[in-house]
Specification:
The chain is of the alpha+beta class. The strands form two sheets. It has a five-stranded antiparallel beta sheet with strand order 1-3-2-4-5. The chain has a two-stranded antiparallel sheet with strand order 6-7. A hairpin with a 4-residue loop joins strand 4 and strand 5.
């Protein structure tokens, strides 16, 4: 009898905790529809969610947006997230991807950006976008960083992290 009442009480406590911590607000945005101009949209920090990690976007640095041909815009808190998400999409060549450039503080086309691999990013992938090439810092182009992300060659990999931080790669 004691065990069953304790188990019931424990179950009720877990359910109550889940209900209290749930974010049931309608203010969270995962996708915006109708962006037929395929331009980057203004993000309201802490209101927009990353489509890959489902976490709120806390800052514009290292964020990205992907616009599908139908005008649906998805948001990402890390460039590594958009690279992984993009590979799983059908017709990913038709998707317009925007990344936030650290040197000009605005969104630029991901395919035109230069990338660094050693930035501090929300999810730890390490990819930072730049509008202008900084020799020795942002020396990689889009297809290269996309391949690095797909192969797991990011700062999340301890071996790659060691090589990149010691400037041996």
């Amino acid at each position: 009898m004691m065990k069953s009442s304790f188990a019931t009480l424990l179950l009720l406590g877990v359910v109550a905790l889940l209900i209290v911590t749930m974010d049931i607000s309608d203010t969270r945005v995962l996708v915006r529809h109708g962006n037929m101009q395929k331009e980057p949209l203004e993000i309201v920090l802490d209101q927009y969610l990353c489509s890959e990690s489902k976490l709120p976007i806390k800052e514009l640095f290292n964020s990205a947006q992907a616009v599908l041909p139908n005008g649906d815009t998805y948001f990402f808190n890390d460039i590594g997230n958009v690279l992984l998400w993009l590979e799983r999409q059908k017709d990913h060549e038709k998707i317009v991807v925007w990344v936030y450039a650290q040197d000009t503080n605005r969104y630029i086309l991901a395919k035109n950006a230069w990338y660094s691999r050693v930035e501090i990013t929300p999810m730890g992938y390490g990819f930072g976008a730049y509008e202008y090439r900084l020799y020795g810092q942002s020396d990689y182009y889009f297809k290269e960083v996309q391949l690095f992300a797909l192969r797991g060659e990011t700062l999340l990999n301890p071996f790659i992290n060691e090589l990149l931080t010691n400037n041996k790669l």
